[in-house]
Design goal:
Elements lengths: L2 E4 L1 H9 L3 H8 L2 E3 L1 H12 L13 E3 L16 H12 L3 E4 L3 H9 L3 E3 L1 H10 L7 H9 L6 H10 L4
Parallel strand pairs: 1-4, 2-3, 4-5
Helix pairs in contact: 1-2, 3-4
Protein name: DUF3368 domain-containing protein
Organism: Entotheonella factor
Amino acid sequence: MPDVICDTSPLQYLYQLEILSVFQSLVQRIIVPPAVVKELEVGRALGVNLPDPIALDWVTVRSPAGAAVLPLTMELGPGETEVLALALESTDALVILDDALARQVAAALSIRFRGTLGLLLDAKEAGLVLAITPLLNQLQALGFRLHSATREAILDLAGEV
């Protein structure tokens, strides 16, 4: 099984949808870098409903070996940068992230990636959720950016058109 390395937003949104256990069911274990732990900690301090990955026994916190290992654009946040750095240090990695620029960088570096919406599709296929439509509605209410064409494509893939 590949190293599954997760950024902040998939943890945030699955937690806020109250289906974080689905993530664990799909991948068993994930790795998060310290920057993701810090981003979630800062959000919790501001009163945002976010998980504490340190309290989850199926999450491992791992630092990238080299801070300068990744020659990335300055537009990436610390979480995305450390997630991609960890992926480059792995022989077999799958990164879970939603940020469009981070996904472009992952593709350019030949790093496999998936996002929150892909996890929802996986969860439906595995029978862990019954329907994607209400989850997409909740995601959008939480501020998740979802273009109408993407929404339609996801619902089509989920067989909910």
